[in-house]
Design brief:
about 300 residues; alpha/beta; 9 helices; binds benzoic acid; binds fe (iii) ion
């Protein structure tokens, strides 16, 4: 006698069909989230959110195995490109606008305070200088357009802040920082100034040019793959600190630069764009100890009093 097949299961056929990919993804996500058990609640909150967003990315984009491995290899090479002199991970964060996003959420200061902006990778300890000093002593001094940068450091009510430190660093007229250019001494185009009685600072230099971020690593590959240019608009970096006030790290951006609307680091904010004043008057030039014509930038920095920071 031939054997009969077992009777077909009764009831809801959906209850016995294999789970869908979506259901399996739900179960997987739940088990990963259940494994997040740090004694530190902040770590739990950060990792839980990160895992949720990463899993949502996979659900939405359905990367192939090959795409996934390409991404893993890219991140591996980003890490391998880092050295004591170079941080490709921060560059990646800058180029994806993440550094500026973190800046936005952390520096939502009161109206009137100078907006902050990304620090970038080129800050280094600078020589202390007296107001009026030149920060330019390399070959750019004879090549570039002479400029005077000056301004006042005040609080958000306009009260002068004496003894504030104004740490500035910039690229030269060819777009190179000292650390990128064998013809410049380390410390060139940098200086730490201290404001006077009225909160004033000033220095002499040459007008910086726009420049490309480093593109010889994996982040450069990414920019090319996205059809993006690597340029940052001409700028001078500032970090201003004063007793009793919150510090600010920011930029002075040169008005008129062609890359202001497409900064590769997404760091331009309207309050930071300063009009260069072209001055041909020899008596004005003499007052600053430069030859006419020269360019003047006036950049005031308004800090937040500590008691107003929550
Ligand atoms: C910079 O301005 O120095 C900079 C900022 C972000 C990425 C690369 C360079
Ligand atoms: Fe820069």
């Amino acid at each position: 006698m031939t054997q009969q097949p077992p009777p077909a299961p009764r009831g809801d056929p959906a209850a016995t069909s294999p789970p869908t990919v979506e259901q399996r993804l739900d179960v997987l996500l739940d088990s990963v989230l259940n494994s997040v058990r740090s004694p530190d609640p902040r770590i739990n909150s950060l990792i839980t959110s990160l895992v949720r967003h990463l899993h949502a990315f996979v659900r939405e984009t359905r990367p192939s195995d090959a795409e996934w491995l390409t991404g893993i290899d890219f991140l591996k090479r980003v890490g391998q490109t880092c050295s004591d002199q170079r941080n490709e991970v921060i560059l990646l964060s800058d180029m994806l606008g993440l550094t500026s996003a973190v800046d936005e959420v952390n520096h939502d200061g009161p109206v009137g305070a100078t907006p902050s902006s990304v620090e970038g990778p080129f800050h280094s300890p600078a020589p202390a200088r007296a107001n009026g000093d030149w920060i330019s002593s390399g070959p750019e001094r004879h090549r570039g357009q002479v400029m005077v940068a000056r301004g006042r450091v005040t609080d958000t009510d306009g009260a002068a802040i004496p003894e504030a430190t104004v740490d500035v660093w910039q690229a030269d007229d060819a777009g190179h920082y000292d650390s990128q250019d064998p013809l410049q001494q380390l410390g060139n185009l940098r200086g730490v100034f201290t404001t006077g009685e009225n909160g004033d600072y000033w220095f002499r230099s040459v007008v910086p040019s726009s420049y490309p971020v480093p593109t010889d690593g994996p982040v450069g590959e990414l920019l090319r793959a996205l059809g993006r240019h690597p340029m940052r608009p001409a700028h001078i970096h500032y970090r201003v600190e004063a007793e009793g006030h919150g510090p600010v790290t920011t930029h002075l951006f040169v008005a008129g630069d062609e890359h202001l609307d497409s900064d590769a680091a997404f760091a331009v904010k309207p309050g930071l764009v300063v009009q260069p004043r072209y001055d041909e008057d020899p008596s004005h030039a003499a007052a600053f100890g430069v030859d006419a014509p020269f360019i003047e930038f006036v950049f005031d920095v308004r800090l937040i009093r500590r008691e107003s920071i929550h």
